[in-house]
C-alpha cells in the first residue's frame, strides 16, 4: 500500500516530525511504500476567495506547490499519517491551510473537482500530535475535528498518538512511548479494526476470536 506521511510543524527536527518518522519506519517495516512530506515545502499561501483567486480556466492561483502535493502525492496514497504540533489546542496553521485549500480543488466550481474529491475518499488516516500539556482535554478538540473531517471525507481514522514534549525531540523521553505508538500505527495502518455500530447493526456477541482475528473476517 502507498502511505503518505505529512509533517506539518515548522520544526523539521521537532516532536511531531520525530513521531512522523517513527510512523514512517513502522509503515516501511510492514512492507508499505512510504512517501514523506514536510508541509512547509508545499504550502505557503493561505486559502483565499476563490471568486477572485481563480484564473480564467478556474484554476487556483495561489502560486505554491500545494497542487502538486495534493494531486501527485495525497490523492494516490492509500493511507495518510498526519503529524501536527498542538497549537492553541488545535492543529498547526499549515495543516489547517492544507485542509482549507482542499476546497479550491473539490468544490463544484473547481476543474476536476469531483475527481479530486473522489480521490480523497477511502483512505485510512492516523493522527500524531505533539504537545506540551498532558491532560486529556488539551487534544480532545483536535481529535474530534479529525474524527469529523475524516468522516466527511469518507476516510477512516484508525488511531491517534499523542506525544508529550516541548523542546525538540523531547517526545522520545515521554514514558508513554509515543514513538512506539506512532510506529505501531504506521505498521498497522491498514489492519487496525475500526467499528461504528448502530443499534441494529448485525454482529456476533464476540469482538475477537481467541487467535485475535475478527469473527467472520479473515485477516
Ligand atoms: C504557537 C504555539 C502554540 C502552542 N499551543 C499549545 C497548546 O495549546 N497546548 C500545548 O500543550 N502545547 C502548545 N504548544 C507547544 C507545542 O505543542 C509543543 O512544543 C510541541 O512539542 C511542538 O511540536 P513540534 O516540535 O513538532 O513543533 C504551542 C506551541 C506554539 C509554538
Q: Which of globular, elongated, flat, extended, rod-shaped describes the shape?
A: globular
Structural class: alpha/beta
Please bin the fraction of helical residues: 25-40%
CATH superfamily: Flavodoxin domain
Number of DSSP helical runs: 8
Arrangement of strands in the largest sheet: 2-1-3-4-5
Radius of gyration equals 18 Å
How many angstroms does the end-to-end distance come to?
Answer: 16 Å
**Total discrete domains:** 1
Describe the largest sheet: 5 strands, parallel
Walk me through this protein's architecture.
There is one protein chain. The protein is α/β, with parallel strands linked by helices. The chain has a single domain (2-187), classed as Flavodoxin domain (Rossmann fold, 3-Layer(aba) Sandwich), CATH 3.40.50.360. Helix content is 34%, strand content 16%. It has 8 helices and 5 strands, in the order βαβααβαααβαβα. It has helices at 15-29, 50-53, 66-74, 93-100, 102-106, 113-120, 137-152, 178-187, and strands at 2-7, 33-38, 79-85, 124-131, 156-164. The chain has a 5-stranded parallel β-sheet with strand order 2-1-3-4-5, with helices on both faces. Helix 1 links the parallel strand 1 and strand 2. Helix 1 (15-29) runs parallel beside helix 8 (178-187). The longest helix has 16 residues, at 137-152. It is globular. The protein starts with a strand and ends in a 32-residue tail after the last helix. 34% of the residues are buried. Bound molecules: flavin mononucleotide. Residues 9, 11, 14-17, 85-89, 130-133, 138, 165-166, 168 line the site of flavin mononucleotide.
Amino acid at each position: 500500500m502507498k502511505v503518505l506521511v505529512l509533517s506539518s510543524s515548522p520544526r523539521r527536527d521537532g516532536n511531531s516530525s520525530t513521531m512522523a518518522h517513527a510512523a514512517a519506519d513502522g509503515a516501511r517495516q510492514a512492507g508499505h511504500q512510504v512517501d514523506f512530506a514536510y508541509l512547509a515545502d508545499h504550502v505557503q499561501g493561505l486559502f483565499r476567495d476563490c471568486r477572485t483567486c481563480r484564473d480564467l480556466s478556474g484554476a487556483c492561483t495561489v502560486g505554491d506547490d500545494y497542487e502538486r502535493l495534493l494531486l501527485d502525492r495525497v490523492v494516490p496514497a492509500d493511507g495518510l499519517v498526519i503529524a501536527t504540533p498542538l497549537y492553541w489546542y488545535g492543529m498547526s496553521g499549515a495543516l489547517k491551510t492544507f485542509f482549507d485549500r482542499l476546497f479550491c480543488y473539490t468544490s463544484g466550481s473547481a476543474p476536476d473537482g469531483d475527481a479530486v474529491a473522489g480521490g480523497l475518499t477511502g483512505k485510512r488516516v492516523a493522527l500524531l500530535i505533539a504537545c506540551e500539556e498532558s491532560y486529556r482535554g488539551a487534544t480532545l478538540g483536535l481529535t474530534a475535528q479529525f474524527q469529523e473531517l475524516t468522516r466527511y471525507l469518507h476516510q477512516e481514522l484508525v488511531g491517534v498518538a499523542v506525544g508529550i514534549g516541548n523542546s525538540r525531540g523531547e517526545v522520545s523521553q515521554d514514558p508513554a512511548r509515543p514513538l512506539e505508538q506512532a510506529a505501531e500505527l504506521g505498521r498497522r495502518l491498514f489492519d487496525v479494526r475500526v467499528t461504528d455500530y448502530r443499534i441494529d447493526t448485525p454482529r456476533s456477541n464476540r469482538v475477537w476470536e481467541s487467535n485475535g482475528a475478527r469473527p467472520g473476517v479473515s485477516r
